[in-house]
Fold this protein.
Amino acid sequence: MAYPAWGSRLAPGDAQRIAAELQSQAERYGVEPWLVMFAWLLKHPAGILPIVGSTTPARIAAAPRAP
């Protein structure tokens, strides 16, 4: 799994470490890695309210299942 936008902000090893942890947590909860990121945003103490901007019906339907 690659997140090219991270390349300019994170050291190369950091992006790989984060991607591996996202994959690990996704497997733990039985969801896709993007749902782990979505859940992290929802639980952030700053009160972030992410917007599901996907046009994929399956992703829109899956968003409420964020762990």
Observations:
- The helical segments are 12-29, 33-43, 57-62.
- The radius of gyration is 13 Å.
- The mean pLDDT is 81.
- DSSP finds three helices and no strands in the chain.
